[in-house]
Amino acid sequence: MGTAHNEAELGQIAKTVLMPGDPLRAKFIAENFLTDVKCFNTVRNMLGFTGKYNGKEVSVMGAGMGMPSIGIYSYELFNHYDVDAIIRIGSAGALQEDIELKDVVMAMGACTDSRYSYQYELPGDFAPIADYSLLEKAVGTARELKIPVKVGNVVSSDVFYNGYTKANEKWASMGALCVEMEAAALYMNAAKAGKKALAILSISDHILKGTELSPEERKVGFKDMMEIALRLA
To answer: Which InterPro entries does the record cross-reference, listed alphabetically (predicted)?
Structure first.
């Protein structure tokens, strides 16, 4: 039986799910990279598909924008649909000078300004980190494909239009590679459920340099990130 946000039945979703933010990107991946595709969710237009990549079953589903949204969908996938691993594939804004547009960043850890972790009633701050086995395999896959990647800390922010104008400067000064809006919640949900998660990010804009990709350039730039993620399934 489905949930309020996902109409899939048990068994219709693969053990590994790729999660772009945009449900239309999930549709694009399903149509262009997978075979034997079946749509398992259309609720709220948060499209989800299961198909095969190189003969192995994999699902792809939109996550929406921000930690509340990916928090709902990833929680249900881990806890209601028995998904073992979720790989976020999304865009991010660079915070370091040596990172360029279209670069691929793998989030070893995810700093955050969110209070998402309050629900766990921990006696301190939780450090959301990627599953090491997924991260190690992703880095190895990138090397095989000759795709350069940067691995390190990212920032998952609750705020896109931030009134605190020095926020990105401060995170950059601590070595954060880029800023996005979902990874920390995904990593916390995975930790609580005893499951695996990894965020692979493609740089769509540079916060400090003020440069950005056009919508068309984003599609091309995201190809490397998608290929790495698909090979992890």
So the answer is: DeoD-type, Nucleoside_phosphorylase_CS, Nucleoside_phosphorylase_d, Nucleoside_phosphorylase_sf
Distance of alpha carbon 77 from the chain centroid: 14
Both tokens of 159, joined, read 């705020």
Work out the number of other CB atoms within 10 angstroms of the CB of residue 175: 11
**Is 7 annotated as belonging to a binding site?**
no
d(CA 126, CA 132): 17
Tokens of 125: 């701050």
Per-residue confidence (pLDDT) for residue 221, from 0 to 100: 66
Three-state secondary structure call for residue 14? coil
pTM summary value: 0.97
| Catalytic machinery residues | 205
pLDDT higher than threshold 90 for residue 215: no
Grouping H, G, I as helix, E, B as strand and the rest as coil, residue 4 is coil
Domain boundaries, the chain: 16-232
Q: Would the annotation count 90 as a binding residue?
A: yes
Confirm or deny that 133 is annotated as ligand binding. Answer: no
| 16-232 fold | Rossmann fold (3.40.50)
| 121 CB-near residues (< 8 Å, 6+ apart) | none
Phi, psi torsion values for 107, nearest 5 degrees: -85, 100
N-terminal to C-terminal alpha carbon distance within the chain: 25
Q: How far apart are CA 55 and CA 36, in angstroms?
A: 10
